[in-house]
Every structure is written in structure tokens, then in C-alpha cells.
Specification:
The protein has helices at 7-74, 77-98, 104-129, 139-215, 228-277, 286-314, 317-320, 329-339, 341-346, 364-381, 439-449; strands spanning 325-328, 350-355, 359-362, 387-395, 398-405, 453-457, 463-470, 498-503, 517-520. The chain has 529 residues and is an alpha+beta fold. It folds into two domains: 7-198, Four Helix Bundle (Hemerythrin (Met), subunit A), CATH 1.20.120; 323-527, Heat Shock Protein 90. The strands form two sheets. The chain has a seven-stranded mixed beta sheet with strand order 6-7-5-4-2-8-9. It has a two-stranded antiparallel ribbon with strand order 1-3. Strand 6 and strand 7 (463-470) form a beta hairpin. The longest helix is centred in the middle third of the chain and has 77 residues, at 139-215. The relative contact order is 0.07.
Length: 529
């Protein structure tokens, strides 16, 4: 099957085919109008010629009448000579008329005029010879004028006839143009629609293929039929799909291996903390018991995060099938802060919070994991003896959560890169364990699955990350399109925050053996826990 080499070629072919009938109709119409104009011009010229010759014929007939009457009165041969000259000119006019396009009535009048002229001429000659038996009535000369005037009047009728014929021809051409427009315009539109379909159909197939690739549906091969350049693009998309399938397989294999390698030491840690918690290996002090409990809870949390990571890598459908329920973001933030007490105390960080009562619809586990990654990221990049500000408020139908640290901040060039998988910024942080680069990536994906968004906002010092989620009143289900986050970009107002400071006793930096103290500012009753 012959196909155009490119969309441009297909567009040009379609343009030529669509415009060809219109061009042919235009040329045909131009020829018809030109022929009508030429015919009308010729008809007018012929009519004008007939009128001119008829007027000349009438003039000669009038002159012959005068000369004939004068001769009958004066009997002067010179007058008869003038009559004969006029008669010769009359014969020339008659000959000229007979060569033109005359009506039958005009030809009949010219025949009668010629016969009468012969009769009068014969009688005049007889009178000149002195034939007394010849009688000539002067009124007979008037019949010449009457016949000539009849020829002229008939010429006017001929002009009217030609005008009527031209009007009928013009009306026929107008009707033809109207029917051509009625027939050709829909035909051109139909042909244009066919070529638009030929152009749009492969483009829509490309769009569907790209949407499938973007949504992660890699099972359907990409097949494009159309111009060669689009077919080539389809083949490149199919190559990309196969590469993505390979990368997904490699990622799944990597995550399976990683999960196996992580679960082995994690199991040992969990069992060990369980033994310590149950005081099988010995009695613990109250502060030691608290530390062991936190360690045990975090090993469970770590196991849950690994399982969620594996679920996320397999498919988003696993997350979409989670139970959707009303979730208090303020409670989730408090739970996350409780789980982060060890790193907060170890770095002597003051956490200042301003948590409004905001409820969203979603899965509490994935939301908690996303918020936990944000808070742990802020703690990780916060220097010792610094602060972390967390502010939760409701803007119209949206929940707005801002997490700010006073660490090295995020460079302008890295604001999008840090949300990519395994991406790590250039900023240095005070932490014993190097990050994997998945925390913010997973947080963003989990928030997007809830119809929200995460952005990095401008701030004078440190990093300010903003999370926007639809509140329960402006509900958006899991997996729906997230909005474009927007905010004034200002830093958190520390004056409106409640401070939760965790301090290790002086002279002893060992968290496990120190007496820990939690101090909270309860100046704002609405923010008390």
C-alpha cells in the first residue's frame, strides 16, 4: 500500500485534491463568463451594425422620396439623376443589410422594398421617355419610406431580443455557479474531512501510545499506521516501551534482591529489640525501656516501609486498592513526630508546630509514610541544636502542610531533581546513615496518588517544602490528577508555632542512658496536644 513519506506530503496531497475541484470549477466558470461576455459583445456589435445600416437605408429612402416627388413636379432630368444616385446608395445599404444577421421580417421588408424600387424606377424611366400611358402616384414614394422605417423598427426588436438572450444566458451561468457551489463545497469539506482523519488518526494513536507509556501500561505493543515519519516514530516508541519493560524487570529484580538483603538483618534487629523489650536478657531502666520501645517501633516501621516500597514498585494498583478513609493530618504529623523522637533528641532539635484541624480522604499508611519521609528529611539536614518548623493550615478546599529546616537548603537547580528516584542533592548533612535518595521520591508519588502535590518554596535560610492535599470537603480520590500547588512562598512564621523541644541532659550525650525531658509551649490553647 502506497503511503506518503511524511505528514507534510500528506497535507500537500490533501490540499491539492481538495482544491482541485474548486480550481476546475473556477476555470470552467471563468471560461463560461468569458464566452458569455464575448457572445454579448458580438451580439451588440451585430445589432449596432444592423441599426446603422437600417438608419442609412431610411435616409436614402427619404431622399429618394423627395427627389421622386420633385421630378414629378419639375420634370427636370438633373433631379432624376440625383434620384438614381440615391437609388444606387439604397442598393448598397440593402446589400449590406442582407449580409447581416436579420430577422425573417426584415428580409421580407427588404424584398418588398426592392420590388417597389424596381417598379418606381421603371415608371420614372417611362415618364422620362414621354410615355403618356405611364401614371405614377407620388404617394408610392412614401411606401419606400414606410418599408425602410419598418426595417429600422425591426432592428430595435432585434436588439431587445439579443438583450433577452443575454439575460437568459447570464441567468443560466448564475444558476450553474450556484449548483456548482452547492455540489463542490460539501465535496471539498468531505475530502478535507477524509484527509484530516488520515492525519489525525495516527496522531491519536501516538497520543494513546504515549499515554499508555506514561501511565505505566507497558503490555500493549505500539503499532502506528500512516505516513512513514509517523511509522518511524511509532517504531521508536515501541523500542522505548521494550526498554522500559527491561528497566522495570531490572528494577523489580533489584528491589527483590534488596528486600531480601534488608529483611535478613532487619529480622535480627526486630527479634533483638523484642527480646530487650520483653526484658528476657535483663531488666531495663525506664529510659532504656523507652529507647528500646522506640527502636522496636521503628524496626516495625522500617519493615512496613520496605513492603510499601516493594508494593509501589510493582504497580500503583496496589496503592489504589488501599482503604480510603477520613484521616486527620494533624494526628498523622503527631504520630510521625513521636516516631522521630530518637533522631530529634540525638541532635537536640527543637520542633515547632502549628497544626490546624484538617481532615483529608486517603490511606493513612501511605500518607503517614509520605509525611514521615518529609519530616525525617528535614531532621536529617538540620544541624544540631537547630529547629524544624511544621505548619498545617486549611486553604479553601485544600490542606497545606509546610515543613522547614534551617540546614544548607536546596539549590535552585536541584529543586526538581531531588524528587527523582535515587537522586541526592549536593548539600551535606550531619547523619551517620547515608540516604538512599528514595525518600522524597516516594513521598511525592504517595502525595500525587492522593491528588496532591509537593513543591520546594523560596526561603531565606534552610529548605521549605510544601504539601497540598484536597481536604475532605474538596475530596479527590486516590489516583486522580493532582492540582498545581501554589502558595505565597513565604517562610513559616515561627511566632505562630508551638515549640516541642527535646533536650539531652548536660554532660551526657548518650541518649539510651540519659534522662530525657520533653518540654512543650502551651501558649496557644488551640494547638495543645
Amino acid at each position: 500500500m502506497l503511503r506518503p513519506r511524511s505528514i507534510l506530503q500528506l497535507v500537500l496531497i490533501g490540499f491539492c485534491i481538495v482544491t482541485l475541484p474548486l480550481i476546475l470549477a473556477f476555470v470552467g466558470t471563468a471560461l463560461l463568463v468569458s464566452d458569455l461576455s464575448h457572445t454579448g459583445q458580438q451580439a451588440i456589435l451585430r445589432a449596432a451594425k444592423v441599426v446603422e445600416e437600417s438608419r442609412l437605408l431610411l435616409e436614402e429612402a427619404n431622399a429618394m422620396e423627395r427627389n421622386g416627388r420633385q421630378y414629378l413636379v419639375l420634370k427636370d432630368s438633373r433631379v432624376l439623376d440625383v434620384y438614381r444616385q440615391r437609388r444606387a446608395q439604397l442598393h448598397d445599404a440593402v446589400s449590406g443589410l442582407r449580409r447581416l444577421d436579420l430577422t425573417d421580417r426584415q428580409r421580407s421588408l427588404l424584398a418588398d422594398l426592392g420590388a417597389l424600387d424596381e417598379t418606381l424606377h421603371r415608371r420614372l424611366n417611362a415618364l422620362q421617355r414621354g410615355d403618356g400611358s405611364t401614371v405614377l402616384d407620388p404617394q408610392e414614394f412614401s411606401q419606400l419610406v414606410t418599408l425602410a422605417r419598418g426595417v429600422l423598427d425591426e432592428s430595435g426588436q432585434l436588439i431587445n431580443k439579443n438583450i433577452k438572450t443575454l439575460g437568459e444566458s447570464a441567468q443560466w451561468v448564475q444558476s450553474l455557479l450556484m449548483w456548482e457551489s452547492i455540489a463542490l463545497v460539501p465535496a471539498a469539506v468531505a475530502l478535507g474531512g477524509v484527509f484530516v482523519l488520515l492525519i489525525v488518526r495516527p496522531l491519536r494513536r501516538l497520543e494513546r501510545a504515549i499515554n499508555l507509556l506514561g501511565s505505566g501500561d507497558l503490555g500493549k505493543p505500539v503499532t502506528i499506521r500512516g505516513p512513514h515519519d509517523l511509522e518511524h516514530l511509532g517504531k521508536r516508541l515501541e523500542w522505548m516501551r521494550q526498554r522500559l519493560v527491561q528497566l522495570e524487570d531490572h528494577k523489580a529484580l533489584f528491589l527483590r534482591n534488596m528486600s531480601h538483603e534488608l529483611k535478613t538483618p532487619l529480622t535480627t534487629l526486630r527479634e533483638g529489640t523484642q527480646l530487650l523489650k520483653e526484658e528476657i536478657v535483663g531488666t531495663l531502666k525506664s529510659d532504656q525501656r523507652e529507647v528500646v520501645t522506640l527502636l522496636h517501633q521503628n524496626t516495625i516501621r522500617l519493615q512496613t516501609m520496605i513492603e510499601d516500597l516493594l508494593s509501589f514498585s510493582n504497580s500503583e494498583a496496589t496503592l489504589l486498592n488501599r482503604t480510603v478513609q477520613s484521616v486527620s493530618l494533624a494526628d498523622l504529623v503527631r504520630q510521625v513526630l513521636d516516631e522521630q523522637q530518637l533522631p530529634v533528641r540525638a541532635k537536640r532539635i527543637t520542633v515547632a508546630t502549628s497544626l490546624a484541624s484538617v481532615t483529608v480522604r486517603g490511606d493513612p499508611m501511605t500518607l503517614k509514610a509520605a509525611l514521615g519521609n518529609l519530616v525525617s528529611n528535614a531532621i536529617k539536614f538540620s544541624p544540631s541544636d537547630s529547629e524544624v518548623h511544621i505548619k498545617l493550615r486549611k486553604d479553601a478546599d485544600w490542606a497545606n502542610l509546610e515543613v522547614r529546616d534551617f540546614g544548607p537548603g536546596i539549590a535552585e537547580s536541584e529543586r526538581e531533581q531531588i524528587f527523582e528516584a535515587f537522586a541526592q542533592g549536593q548539600a551535606q548533612y550531619d547523619c551517620y546513615v547515608k540516604g538512599s535518595g528514595l525518600g522524597l521520591f516516594i513521598a511525592r508519588e504517595f502525595i500525587r496518588l492522593h491528588g496532591g502535590a509537593i513543591d520546594v518554596l523560596d526561603c531565606e535560610k534552610g529548605a521549605l517544602l510544601q504539601v497540598r492535599l484536597p481536604s475532605a470537603s474538596g475530596e479527590i480520590g486516590l489516583g486522580e490528577t493532582q492540582p498545581t500547588a501554589g502558595d505565597d512562598g513565604s517562610c513559616l512564621d515561627s511566632g505562630s508555632l508551638r515549640r516541642s523541644e527535646v533536650v539531652a541532659p548536660s554532660g551526657n550525650a548518650d541518649v539510651a542512658g540519659s534522662e530525657l525531658e520533653l518540654r512543650r509551649d502551651t501558649g496557644d490553647p488551640a494547638l495543645r496536644q
